[in-house]
Amino acid sequence: MPEPTAEFRRALGWSATAARSLGELRAVEEALKDVYATRAVAEARRQEELAAGGVVGDNDVRTGEAQPLVLAATGLDAIGESDWTRAYEAPLQQSRTRRRYEKRVRKALAKARRALRARLAAGTYPDGAYDE
């Protein structure tokens, strides 16, 4: 069997690091899911108890907190593993490109407006109508 190269060993090390990181991310995801779900259930129960007790005003303060928590807890499942490792330079580049394009459009429109104003100003008054 041939001896593994340094590049192969380095790649193997990175692979092990990535596997450990993925395991840590999964553990954090599960912990967050548990916290969100527990908090959502507690808030829903609290609102039910307040509504059953006929307390006026207290329920209005925190109305709607349980629903975002449930959505956040279920939203953690919607994040795929490919999203964890996606590069974040792309949105910046798209944003920069979009800003540059919008600037070019604004400049072109301003130039067209200036030309239109010049033509309108020149053609508004007949020759010699307002000469003194």
Folded structure, characterized:
By secondary structure, this protein is an all-alpha fold. α1 packs antiparallel against α3. The longest helix has 48 residues. The chain folds into two domains: 77 residues; 38 residues. Helix content is 80%, strand content 0%. The chain contains five helices and no strands.
Summary tags:
5 helices, 132 residues, 2 domains, single chain, mainly alpha
Main β-sheet description: none
Counting H and I runs of at least 4 residues, what is the number of helices?
5
Radius of gyration: 32 Å
Q: Globular, elongated, flat, extended or rod-shaped: what is the shape?
A: flat
> Can you tell me the number of structural domains?
2
Strand content: under 5%
Mean pLDDT: 73
Report helical residue fraction: over 70%
Can you tell me the residue ranges where pLDDT is under 50 for at least 5 consecutive residues? none
In total, how many beta strands? Answer: 0
Q: In whole angstroms, how far apart are the ends?
A: 104 Å
Secondary-structure element string: HHHHH
Structural class: mainly alpha
Task: Give the secondary structure arrangement, pairings included.
Blueprint: H1 6-53, H2 58-61, H3 66-78, H4 81-84, H5 89-124
Helix pairs in contact: 1-3
Short précis:
With 132 residues, this protein is mostly helical. Helix content is 80%, strand content 0%.
